Amino acid sequence: MELEQTLAKHFGYTAFRPGQKEVIGAILEGKDVLALLPTGMGKSLCYQLPGYILQKPVLIVSPLLSLMQDQVEELKRIGEKRVVALNSFLTVSEKRYVLHFLEQFRFIFTSPEMLLQQQVQDKLSQMQLGLIVVDEAHCISQWGFDFRPDYLRIGQWFSQVNRPPVLALSATATNKVVNEIRDTLSLHTPFEFLYNVDRPNIHLGRVIFEDRADKVHWIIQHIKETAGPGILYMSSRKRAEQYSEALIQAGIRAAAYHAGYGAEDRQFTQQQFIDGELDWIVATNAFGMGINKSDIRQIVHETMPANVENYMQEIGRAGRDGQPALAILLYCDGDEELAKFVVTGDLPTSGHVDRYQELLNQQVQPSQMLKNGELSETAFRVLDYWLQQETMEQVKVRLNHLALEKYRAVDEMQKITQTKDCIRTQLVGYFGQKLLKKPENCCENCGIHYDEINKVRLKEEKKIEMIPWKSRLKQLLMGF
User: Where is the Helicase ATP-binding domain (predicted)?
Assistant: First the structure.
């Protein structure tokens, strides 16, 4: 059957988007593939369509529970029943059931941590998979080395099994990150499709303040006057909650979202946003990866992100429907110091390395550091992983190198924040690419007519009270 016929039969589309057919063709030829496709270009179709042709299970390794659940629900909406998320949401009995019948599913989503559990690996080793997908593969570089060490272990597992072709997917990656993905996953002479990272329908605004306090007034006023849906990115959980409360008081349908909330609460908030019950999400960078909402019109950064990759990922959540969208970056002198403080806050120190060894010498589990509140869970994951791989001195050198790399990344972001040249050209150039064409209303430095992009916000007749999802569910069930 021609690929276009399969596309129409299962997904209702008559034509492929750029890159999709090339990537799918390479997979069907049995090749490893590394694909860089911007948000909104239909990355998920690159493994979903082969799933209907290969007639063998497709394993998708995904970094976030919310992203995983969103993709599972999307497949169910188009009528796919043989899809499952093998993750921590499952009860013990549900997990046992899923593992027993795992080979009967067409699409199997899981996390790096779940993938590396022995019982999961034992089951997968007995199966014939058609394809393994590593979604958001840039996490291997950005998160793997200091946030999600289990992303690094995926490649180790690959080398131990008779694996099918591997598809590594990402929206943004520098040449350095592309090389790291290729090496870490041990891809065999992969077919590579690296699409231009530019999103011409996203217009790049920037506002520079002399006083950080002036940002608060500007943000509240801007959101009150202009239409969403939108995401307001913050540097901390506390500020996300403060701004969310301020917006709600101003009559905006808004909610805070960060990793401090429970998984169910985060998923419920995300679903409210997708369904149009919320107009603005006030979030840390924990929100938005892979979110399936096409009509996000605005992204506002209250302060500069820690690196250019994060910035491109976050603004890429806007305008997935191809319609004009606006990304506004707010900057005040000193924001770069805040960014450096935030990005190194979760890195363990040389002192933590010594403390880890001290506990081992006392025959105490090093996880006691976590229980004592001596460091964060993220920092402990980093420390524990690398101290199992290298000597104490090597780990100290590595941690120092990681901190310097993070500082350099902030400096690169600051250059783009303060440039007097075309911001879009600078962003695209950071990824080793060239800007093909400047759109109208390109960026702040080239000139933007904001009124041509932003629509005026229509005030709500009724202010919606934001209450926890469990309370709302209880009220609905009681028929209040």
Answer: 24-191
Evaluate whether 236 touches 259 at the Cβ level (below 8 Å): no
> pLDDT averaged over consecutive 10-residue blocks of the chain (480 residues)?
85 89 95 88 90 93 80 87 89 91 94 88 91 89 70 80 90 87 90 92 95 92 94 92 94 90 82 92 73 89 92 91 94 92 85 96 94 87 89 94 91 94 95 91 94 80 48 45
The pLDDT score that the predictor gives to residue 477 is 46
Predicted local distance difference test score (pLDDT) of residue 467: 52
Residues 290 and 170 placed together within one structural domain of the fold: no
- The DSSP call for residue 450 is G
Q: Tokens 């976030």 sit at which residue?
A: 64
Strands 202-209, 33-36: pairing is unpaired
d(CA 241, CA 272): 17
Residue 348 carries which DSSP code?
-
Domain range enclosing 103: 3-194
194: left (phi over 0), alpha (psi -120 to 50) or beta: beta
Quick check: 476 and 470 in contact, CB under 8 A?
A: no
Considering the domain boundaries, does residue 431 fall inside one? Answer: yes
Q: Which amino acid is at 256?
A: A
Residue 208 shares a structural domain with residue 190: no
Give pLDDT, residue 472. Answer: 47
The reply to whether 445 and 332 lie within a common domain is yes
pLDDT of 451 reads 87
Question: What integer pLDDT is reported at residue 464 of this predicted model?
Answer: 44
Handedness of CA 114, 118, 123, 127 (dihedral sign): positive
Structure tokens at 17: 């988007």
Of 194, 211, 238, the residue that ends a domain is: 194
**Of 154, 177, 194, which residue constitutes the final position of a domain?**
194
Residue 216: what pLDDT?
Answer: 92
Answer yes or no: do 216 and 103 share one domain: no
Split into its structural domains, the chain has a count of 2
Q: What is the pLDDT of residue 1?
A: 55
- 110 plus 216 within the same structural domain: no
- Nearest in space to 221 (alpha carbons), one of 234, 235, 207: 207
Q: Tell whether 421 is covered by a domain.
A: yes
| Interior angle at CA 475, CA 472 and CA 480, nearest 5 | 140
CATH code, domain carrying 326:
3.40.50.300
The helix (H) or strand (E) run that includes residue 249 is helix 237-249
Report d(CA 249, CA 227) in Å as an integer. 17
3-state secondary structure of 155: helix
Cβ neighbours of 6 (radius 10 Å): 15
Residues 295 and 170 grouped into a single domain: no
**Both tokens of residue 476?**
């609905």
